Amino acid sequence: MQIAVLDDYQSLAQDFADWRRLDGRATVAFFARPIGCEAELIETLQPFDAVCLMRERTSFPRQVIEALPKLKLIVTSGMKNAAIDVAAAAARGITVSGTPSPGHATAELAFGLILALARGLVPQSNALQAGRWQQGIGRDLKGATLGVLGLGRLGSQVAAFGKAFGMEVIAWSENLTEEHCREVGVGYRDKARFFAEADFITIHLRLSERSRGLVGAEEFYLMKPEAYLVNTSRGPIVDAKALERALVGDMIAGAALDVFDQEPLPPDHWVLSTPKLLLTPHIGYVTRETYAVFYGETLAAVEAWLDGAPIRRIAP
Fold first, then answer.
1. Which pLDDT belongs to residue 56?
2. pTM
3. The one catalytic residue among 38, 108, 263, 303
4. Are strands 228-231 and 168-172 parallel, antiparallel or unpaired?
5. Mean pLDDT (whole number) for 159-175
6. Which of 102, 182, 227, 314 has the fewest Cβ atoms nearer than 10 Å?
7. How distant, in Å, are the alpha carbons of 150, 167, 171 from that of 156?
8. Is the pLDDT of residue 25 over 90?
């Protein structure tokens, strides 16, 4: 049995699970470099019986799956991975398994970015290291309005953080109800009021055809000039061109992005040269505790499959 562990960007997968448990049953190869080219991915994976993926780092569409005749098992971190064509895997009889996903790490990062934007932590730190004292002025979170776009598991956690800081918390998404808002203890707003009232908007939606480009020119027009946008969800939920125009045209005060339409970012990507942006390299789930769950449970899923009793099956 030959197993490929892809997307190990930081070469840490071997540190967060005891892969020696597979000795005598399988050999494991770890790939740190992203394989973005589909043809290269197919060529690289020809010898492998199983592939372990970090959620939505490597695209795994039908054409890749159908070009890998030896492939019998796919394990992904988390129970949902939009990068995998699960139907194509099921049609081939390939088992797809997932892992638990703690989730709270992304919520913590989102609120950390809100704090960083409010107090200008990065430019203040950079200025001080360059010998300049107290550049610019921050703002309070207490009394400000936090807009949570998507009030699911992560959105509800961020809403709780906001309330703990004394913020007024409001929420909206296409399927959100006033009843659910009352259960979470936040105010419901329709779309227009949501974007118009929020001082900070944080996105916590899954990427789908309906959510793609959901925050665009119309939404930025509604926002306050002193408002901020935070996206730790998926890059394409925000219309990139509309965001660039909003930042350059001073339509909003700034944005913090942990996710992008291309990952890893190419060196000439527009966000790297656009002002008023706080950028992090998709580190929402990149914590010791989350990696221990992801890689430990990935190994457990491989062992269970080898034992003939797959766990946490997504397909077939």
1. 87
2. 0.94
3. 263
4. unpaired
5. 97
6. 182
7. 8, 14, 10
8. yes
Token pair 């060196």 is at which residue? 267
The enclosing H or E element of 124 equals helix 121-129
Active site residue 263: yes
180 — pLDDT class (breaks 50, 70, 90): very high
Query: Tokens at residue 26, please?
Result: 């399988």
Alpha-carbon distance of 8 to 250, in angstroms, equals 38
Catalytic residue among 57, 189, 204, 282: 282
Has 234 been annotated as catalytic?
Answer: yes
Q: Tell me: pLDDT of 108 over 90.
A: yes
Sheet hosting strand 200-203, strand order edge to edge: 187-188, 168-172, 145-149, 200-203, 228-231, 254-257, 277-279
> Are residues 122 and 278 in contact, defined by beta-carbon separation less than 8 angstroms?
yes
Helix-, strand-, coil-residue percentages of the chain, each rounded to 5: 35, 15, 45
Strands (E), 98-236: 145-149, 168-172, 187-188, 200-203, 228-231
For residues 109 and 86, give the distance between their C-alpha atoms in angstroms, rounded to a whole number.
Answer: 29
Task: Point out the catalytic residue in the list 55, 189, 204, 234.
Answer: 234
Query: What is the predicted pLDDT for the residue at 158?
Result: 98
Q: Is pLDDT at 138 greater than 90 in this prediction? A: yes
**Which pLDDT score, from 0 to 100, does residue 103 have?**
87
Give the contacts of 204 (CB within 8 A, at least 6 positions apart): 107, 110, 148, 149, 150, 151, 152, 154, 155, 158, 232, 233
For residue range 39-53, what is the model confidence (pLDDT) as tens digits?
A: 999 999 999 999 999
CB atoms within 10 A of CB 53: 24
Six token digits for residue 74:
């796919």
Mean residue pLDDT of the chain comes to 97
Residue 145's CB: how many other CB atoms inside 10 A? 19
* 204 noted as active-site residue: no
